[in-house]
Amino acid sequence: MYIYVVSNEKGGVAKTTTTINLAAGLARAGKSVLVVDMDPQASATSVLVGHKNAELTIYHLLKDQKRQIPAESAIRPSSEAKVFIIPSGPLLANAEVEFVKYIDNQRLLLNRLQEVATEFTFDFAVIDSPPRSLFLNRNCLFAADEVIVPLFTDLFSIEGIVDLVDDISMIAQSRGKKIEVGFLLCRVERTKSAQQIAQELREVYSHRVFNTLISKNVDVSDAHSQHVSVLTYAPASVGALAYQQFAQEILSHHGQ
User: Fold this and answer.
1) Is the dihedral of CA 112, 115, 120, 124 positive or negative?
2) Residue 107 CB: number of other CB atoms within 10 A?
3) What are the tens digits of pLDDT across the range 164-211?
4) Cα Rg, the chain, nearest whole Å
5) Residue 140's closest CA among 112, 177, 182?
């Protein structure tokens, strides 16, 4: 099970949208996908499950140090075929205070996902990370094989990229493995400033910037209110085609 983490320290930069639609795109390519909602706001859970009231969530799995709750008991089917989810909920907001006392607490998520990988044959896990939570984000990054950083083509969106890349490098060193990083340009508009920022980003990070561009498209946000991905809601839309292309680009990196 290859683990993608969708991460950006800023909120409102299409992390959840990218998580949901990448998962749906991979599933449409015949892959089995597990979404892990690590955001206490539980937006991915709301879209893929229809509510935020799951009895068992990722909070309960992280809290359960003795593994008395099997990871499989928290895995639920979603509104997207071949996409499953470990939901989140508001209790996860307490994690930073509750779990800080746990030994090796940055490995809590990785430990549970390793358990999942031994029991299931998911091809990919896609983790929706929260904004502004050092503890939860560190757990997400520590579990990652690769980090996808969604960005808007404006100066405010790209602030903090250097710090995030540095954090990923430090975690990769502590794990003793390489963690890949890729930047996905979202809600791209055809303005001179947007084109200039995109060009500068490619000049600095070159191969780390995905070729796929996710244009601004109202169908993407409308799909959320229908509790499905844009690939299900409006499969012929610009947004759906872009996310399907992104899924194919991801698969090409795996030689598929």
Assistant:
1) positive
2) 16
3) 888 899 999 988 899 999 999 988 876 777 777 778 788 887 778 999
4) 17
5) 112
